[in-house]
Amino acid sequence: MIEVILGDITKITADAIVNAANTSLLGGGGVDGAIHKAGGPDILEECIAIRNRQGGCKVGEAVITTGGELPAKFVIHTVGPVWNGGKKNEDILLANAYINSLKIAADNGVKTLAFPNISTGVYRFPKDRAAVIAVHTVREFLNEFGEIDKVTFVCFDTENFELYQALLAG
Ligand code: AR6
Question: Mean per-residue pLDDT for 152-157?
């Protein structure tokens, strides 16, 4: 099933929450900053280990760490694209960020997963266009594979919340 809520993803109890990270995996502002702040230093330590092993995380890919002190067991760090007008493969890269997060979740036995609205903050992806991609991609994955029981879209602003409510109702 898919649901949408308005709230702070760091407060969500789920097997995993997704972080809208950057390619360095070293943290930043927005939801990334909030997750590292609430989750404590173990998350960054694992991110640094991953970075030392594979040199960070490419746009559209995903890696997994502990949830540290968060209510969630794992954090899946993915990197959405920076919006550059729409002709730089942004739609596919955003869909890949969702797909690869879902895949790494399923590979780690995650049954309940929460997503923020990836790329719609600092990275400036148009919210309506990002919401269509997010809902479509998650729906397809759940229909096709079925390993994950519940995906929650956690919106931080009412504009995104209303967009997702409308898309999920349709
Ligand atoms: N819970 C849920 N959603 C949140 C929270 C929160 N606590 N805080 C912000 N959001 P952004 P991006 C929403 O900018 O656009 C970072 O510096 C926010 O309102 O966090 O993918 C990274 O290190 C927006 O809808 O991520 C990267 O450098 C959504 O989360 C860069 O920003 C995403 O906004 C990534 O940019």
Answer: 98
Q: Which domain holds residue 90?
A: 2-169
Would you say the pTM of this structure is higher than 0.90? yes
For the record, the structure tokens of 82 come out as 């920076």
Q: Which residues line ligand 1 (CB under 6 A)?
A: 8-10, 20-22, 28-32, 34, 80, 116-123, 154, 156-157, 160
Contacts of 162 (CB under 8 A, 6+ apart): none
Number of domains in the chain: 1
CA–CA distance, 14 with 12 (Å, rounded to integer): 6
CATH code for the domain in which residue 155 is found: 3.40.220.10
Which residue in the list 8, 15, 32, 128 is annotated as catalytic? 32
Query: Model ipTM?
Result: 0.99
